[in-house]
Amino acid sequence: MYGRKVKLRFLFVIIILITLILTTFLILKSLEENVVYFQSPSEIKSLYEIDKSKIRVGGMVKKNSISISSNEVNFIITDFKNEINVTYSGAVPNLFAEGKGVVAEGFLKDRNFFSATKILAKHDENYMPPEVKEALGEK
Q: Which residue of 54, 85, 95, 109 could cross-link 121, Cys pair, CB 3.0 to 4.6 Å?
């Protein structure tokens, strides 16, 4: 019914589609292991069981919640519905401040307490490094 050329083209298109689907599947499967999401305090409060593996908690640093001692920083992360107390030993990023976004990586002790091993300060889309700001003459 169909000629030899049509059958070869059809086979060629099918092979390309199968290859494309397989490649996409393998790429997404390999990225799945490396993607780390953060959870909000509300999501942590609603957890059925507390996992002892490393997680990330994200939200805003609550106003007037930062307490700095000689070797430890304590603060509260909020999503404006729920809060979680965070303790961290080490230097915090320059962008870390009250009322700013933050992602803390570490271990959950219970639904209200988080022990951070790393602090990642988030910035908005208007952020400009100080060196660039000086070069442009902006203040």
A: 95
